[in-house]
Write a structure and sequence with these properties.
Elements (H helix, E strand, L loop, with lengths): L6 H12 L3 H13 L3 H25 L6 H9 L3 H32 L6 H22 L1 H29 L17 H10 L9 H5 L6 H30 L2 H6 L4 H5 L1 H40 L10 E2 L2 E2 H16 L2 H25 L1 H4 L4 H24 L1 H26 L1
Antiparallel strand pairs: 1-2
Length: 425
Amino acid sequence: MNKKIGLKEAISIGIGGMVGGGIFAVLGLAVSLAKGGTSTAFLFAGILALITSHSYVKLSKTYPDRGGTVKFINQGFGKSVFSGAISNLLWVSYIIMLSLYASAFGSYAPNLLELTHHKTIDFHIYASAIIIFATIINYYSIAVVGKIESYAVIIKLIILIAFVFIGAYGLIGNPNLNQLAVSNWETPIKLFAGGMVIFVAYEGFELIANAAPDIINPERNIPRAYYFSVIFVILLYIIIAIVTVGSLPFSKIATAQDYVLAEAAKPMLGKIGFSIITIAALISTFSAINASLLGGSRVNYEIAEDDELPHHFLAQLWNQPIGLMITAVATLVLVNVLALESISTSGSIGFLLIFAIVNLVGLKLSKETGSNKIIPFMGFVLCLVASVILINQQYKTNITGVIVSVAIIGFCFLAEWIYKNSEKK
């Protein structure tokens, strides 16, 4: 029998999924793209997540299933090449998120140990080691993964909220406050594109869908879980962005781009603040890797169970689905091959496309779910427009990220088409 989930636990699943390693990984990247308007970039991305969460609320209440997003897509499009390809894209997007978290861990770890020399070597060693360690834990015990998650959510939220309050107080009289002036903002289109590059920092609310069948009083608690968690995280990210941009000169943010949140704690709390935020980053990214490895292997299993991947993926390796090992190995490859911006771009494009499709399902099934058609339609259009703007902006500055994204999407469709045709024969 599954343990029932209350409102508090459901909200913590959403917040834990979003405030994983995302903010630690992409904050510096966001500032480099949006400058003084970074908080607005986070707001743009957050509004898109909030609109999409409406479709998730309606679908989670009408079709509660532990398959979450995979089941919603099948509900809207049947078990077709299209739905299979989008479900595969969800699994690959989990792998991209894992490499983003591992990348953040690899960037913060050397600072804690003050091994600042040969940082490139240190980065890859730490990023790879944490994936291997988390994989071992996932194989050892799923219960341990759950325990780590529940403690990590509390620790990282306490540290981030403390950073927000102390940081906001520290802004008084800070000479860098003028960086927040509108004159230091990028153009609106660049702000929007910046928000979309770091959209991956919001994708975790979709994990609530997997818990929907176990949520107590779903009619009341499912909407609250989605909306409370997304709105809370939007506010948290906006304030973190304001504190960071108001605390450090742009030149310092650029130098410390990969571990900027720890650097932003220095003006208020010195070396202690730097160390505390670094520890929070390591706990957050580690717990996010742990949970995403489990989630990724489950998504892979669900897709195979729905006949959208070969049944070989239902096989077990050391009492866990074989997808766990495939997910871990693919993450190791990605984190050692791609740069952070390319990882973030690929993840954002993947999730924007997936969320566009979920919004389209919300629109198609609005009669069954009792949804207002305008909101899922807006979500669908905005996700597509956001994808186009993001691809266009990144094409000029980071063509590798665009090529990787297009190749991943193409591969998901081609692989599904080949599999479905071979099944027919």
